[in-house]
Amino acid sequence: MPEKPDDDSLKNSKMTRSAWWSSRVTVLPKSARRLGVNENNVNRWVRQYRDKYESASTDGQTREQLETELKRLRKENKRLEMEREILKKAAAFFANESK
Questions:
Q1: In 3D, which of 22, 25, 23, 20 has the Cα closest to residue 9?
Q2: How far is 27 from 24, CA to CA, in rounded Å?
Q3: Using CB atoms within 10 A as the burial measure, which of 66, 78, 85, 96 is most buried?
Q4: Closest CA to 1 of 45, 55, 40
Q5: What is the value of pTM for the model shown?
Q6: Could you give the C-alpha distances from 54 to 8, 12, 15, 88, 97, in angstroms and in order?
Q7: Where are the alpha helices (DSSP H) in 3-62?
Q8: pLDDT digits (tens, 9 = 90+) for 28-72
Q9: Contacts of 49 (CB under 8 A, 6+ apart)
């Protein structure tokens, strides 16, 4: 598969990123048939490529990086919730003991 265009090369040409992908999508099924590869496989590979490399967030992270960060943040959130519950119980215990 040809390399995806970077933003600089798109600025110098009249082709937009969506036009670039569209041109590849029309050529890929023909090439797949000629090579004996199922078109569904090619479509899945293109979708996986797009998900991994094209769906960058506003801060430039890929979907994979965002999912990794989300997993880390959920784990940290769970730990912090447990700590909060422990501190609540400790505060209640010491409040009852001082009476």
A1: 20
A2: 5
A3: 66
A4: 45
A5: 0.45
A6: 15, 20, 17, 45, 59
A7: 7-11, 17-35, 39-49
A8: 777 788 888 888 888 888 888 877 776 656 677 777 888 899 999
A9: 1
